[in-house]
Design goal:
19% strand; five-stranded parallel sheet; Rossmann fold; alpha/beta
Length: 160
């Protein structure tokens, strides 16, 4: 059984993230979406809310499971028995960063990384979503349709 792990902050989970998960769910028997929890970073959404949003987005995929972690990516990959880390590449800047991370995860943890080019139609950053939320602008075209209401609701709750 081949497994992979897609990692990120997912603050929040975008159409680009969903596109990547959709593509690898057809290749791998099991896909873990691993939500990074970095205590020194400030997030718009709590880890519980990020997981809730992801679960709503990937509900139709039986082979996708969402987890969270606060350690090294390669340690979680080993713990879960993951064969490959999967990363999306949007630009040459992403590529250079991911190349260094792939080298580190391979040499430190023995886990290999596969990179997929992003679908330009789903080339969206979580930062762009957060900016639109802050300005009260529409989120269509940035988030999975099934998550837009949930993201707006969770954001409104945060403002209270």
């Amino acid at each position: 059984m081949a497994t992979c792990m897609v990692t990120g902050s997912f603050d929040p989970f975008t159409l680009g993230h969903l596109d990547l998960v959709r593509r690898v769910s057809g290749i791998f028997d099991r896909v873990y979406v691993a939500v990074l929890v970095n205590p020194s970073k400030e997030y718009l959404f709590s880890v519980e809310h990020r997981i809730q949003i992801i679960q709503a987005a990937v509900a139709e995929y039986d082979n996708v499971q969402c987890v969270s972690y606060a350690g090294m990516t390669y340690e979680l990959a080993k713990e879960l028995g993951v064969d490959f880390l999967v990363r999306g590449i949007r630009s040459t800047v992403d590529f250079e960063y991911e190349l260094d991370m792939a080298d580190y995860n391979l040499h430190e943890g023995g886990v290999d990384t596969l990179c997929l080019m992003t679908n330009q139609l789903a080339d969206v950053s979580s930062g762009a979503v957060r900016e639109r939320l802050l300005r009260g602008e529409p989120l269509e075209g940035l988030l999975p349709e099934q998550c837009i209401g949930l993201v707006k609701e969770l954001y409104a709750t945060k403002l209270r």
